[in-house]
Amino acid sequence: MKIHNYSAGPSILPQEVFKKSAEAILDFNNSGLSILEISHRSKDFVAVMDEARALAIELLGLEGKGYQALFLAGGASLEFIMAPYNLMKVGGKAAYLDSGTWASAAIKEAQFFGETVIVASSKESNYNHIPKGYTVPSDADYFHCTSNNTIFGTQMKEFPSLDIPVVCDMSSDIFSRVLDFSKFDIIYAGAQKNMGPAGTTLVVIKEEILGKNGRAIPSMLDYTKHIKAESMYNTPPVFPVYAALLTLKWIKDKGGVAAVEKLNIAKATLLYSEIDRNPLFKGASVVEDRSTMNATFLLNDEEHAPIFDALWKEAGISGLPGHRSVGGYRASMYNAMNIESVQVLVDVMKALEGKI
Amino acid sequence: MKIHNYSAGPSILPQEVFKKSAEAILDFNNSGLSILEISHRSKDFVAVMDEARALAIELLGLEGKGYQALFLAGGASLEFIMAPYNLMKVGGKAAYLDSGTWASAAIKEAQFFGETVIVASSKESNYNHIPKGYTVPSDADYFHCTSNNTIFGTQMKEFPSLDIPVVCDMSSDIFSRVLDFSKFDIIYAGAQKNMGPAGTTLVVIKEEILGKNGRAIPSMLDYTKHIKAESMYNTPPVFPVYAALLTLKWIKDKGGVAAVEKLNIAKATLLYSEIDRNPLFKGASVVEDRSTMNATFLLNDEEHAPIFDALWKEAGISGLPGHRSVGGYRASMYNAMNIESVQVLVDVMKALEGKI
What residues of chain A lie within 8 A of the CB of B75, using their CB? Predict the structure, then answer.
């Protein structure tokens, strides 16, 4: 039976990525060697890293604009530390938008490095919306925001235009929609949603903002050192980077981010329409801030849960339970999910009406 | 043609690891899902992480001795930072043995955190031996050493018994030989030599030494937080951890570290005997400190290089050139290499005698 994988992350990837990466484990580029046993300094892997870095920049429309892409290890959580280490002055301060659990975790780490101004927070309403109408202090060293809140199913539709560097955690919606990415100075994203398997983090940096905060930075946390070493300051996570490259190529083959965005909107529209139409369900986040990636929704009557749960499991759906801090359900519809899988979920939601 | 992979790292792994990990990419545990798309919080992956952590402790003979094993991301180079962050007091100092390039890199990072005492160094002789007869200051917060120097082909045979915590970078010889591992308080090792593909780092920690240096530690760099979260403080590098588990199971199936060590000694003896017998070659490091993992050797007459290089390439050998800082050749004979492959190299060295 086909499984419809709604996991929030690590999450669904294109079947082609599985097929090609399994092949590379048995024999990489007809070398007679596995991709798991080749040197990261080999010609074949240097080509993988170079292509992945260039393709990330290309897909974001940032060619020739002074940006560098890195594929680091460590997870996006390490960027919570690297961003302030590289940008916050000693005795400086940074401005953060608190739009969810991960934004809040980023704030906690920044506090190790200096003053942290929370410009706005939606915590009081359990992060069911994106805060708006805030002012960012113009003397902050940078502004940090989270473009998509995986847990709560909200997504920033607008980003402030500022004279200070803008840092954005795009872990759960990178490469899912077209934005003017040149508004950002650092974009980072753990691979394990739209970009590849867990184990590597993309960091896209406007190079000119680095080296200005006067802080002594340990090498592994220093973006400048990683850029100088062309993302091979130390042994990179070879296989995750290779699988990320395969995923980026798949996006390009689909027609790039704009084409993928169209499909993402169609999937989200299909599901949210059913959530709004079906009297048994309600959305968990405010309508205007709904995420196209993660749709959070609840049963109006919790007593229907056992029947609904049995129905979606029978239909081959997995990964649908919501995060414990929201409850209910969360349908993560990353790039690699087909609209047919969303239709299966919608059909199950409709079927529930006939069962009760 | 069979390739004999002498790469220094990432490096040869058991064929069984390639086969099983490729299968898991196509279908993990008959779930109908790839290991690249499952949640790290899924029952199946939690079991992988738990088994890998327990098996690492078991293979090192550290069960019931107060140790915890973590599989982190970021590479061993990140441990160069985490060790001082977690152990060095504010205004404190640490003692380091400078036995090679990576030891020296670890020292450089520790200097961001406090005073660093280099107890001895073999830098003046291009790290061709392990420094001995040094004294470690008893008031240092910890002592750091590197058990095997991949680049130079030297290996510590003895370790000091100290009253302060001992931290050891075992990246290139972990699980290759039996030691009294309880002499160490932190052992860390990038996976990409004897333990798995690049992308995860094993850290084995005697828990009681943590939380004593009074330093505020950012979460992702805090061993205590990683231990509390059972090595899932953030999304771990799922696939590299799974492939590491397969490799650890292979070691256990071979009879454990003691059995593997026997084979490693046999391989090293075979190759070093030929280096010493063959008048065309000489070893690059002093005999008593020779590494069983990485044998470095040189041609006595550089003019023979083109003939020798052609011979080993014809024989299907790859990854033999030495690191630029030593020159010549380096044969890395990690656990997964069969003695038959070492015999192929020895035969080529013998054949060279007949060619000139």
Answer: 73, 220, 234-235
Residues 6+ apart with CB under 8 A from A259: none
**Do B57 and B205 share a structural domain?**
yes
Global confidence as pTM: 0.98
3-state SS, residue B16? helix
Is any Cβ of chain B less than 8 angstroms from the Cβ of A111? Answer: no
Cα A213 from Cα A229, distance rounded (Å): 21
The verdict on residue A5 lying in a domain is no
Both tokens of A288, joined, read: 């205007």
Residues found in chain A: 356
Q: How many CA atoms lie within 13 A of B277 on its CB side?
A: 11
Q: Containing domain of residue B330, as a range?
A: 256-355
Task: State pLDDT tens for residues A237-248.
Answer: 999 999 999 999
Task: Please give the share of chain A, as a percent, with pLDDT higher than 90.
Answer: 99
CA-CA distance, A268 to B198, in Å (whole number)? Answer: 37
Predicted-complex ipTM score: 0.98
* Percentage helix, strand, coil for chain A under 3-state DSSP, each rounded to 5: 40, 15, 45
Q: Is B337 on the interface with A (CB under 8 A)?
A: no
**Amino acid identity for residue A219 in this structure:** S
Rounded to the nearest 10°, the torsion over CA A261, A244, B234, B105 is -140
Q: Is B102 a catalytic residue?
A: yes
Token pair of B190 as six digits: 């990038």
Of A3, A25, A108, the CB nearest to B32: A3
Instruction: Indicate left, alpha or beta for A119 from its phi (over 0: left) and psi (-120 to 50: alpha).
Output: alpha
Same domain, A196 and A277: no
The mean per-residue pLDDT over the stretch B291-311 comes to 98
For tokens 């080296």, name the residue. Answer: A211
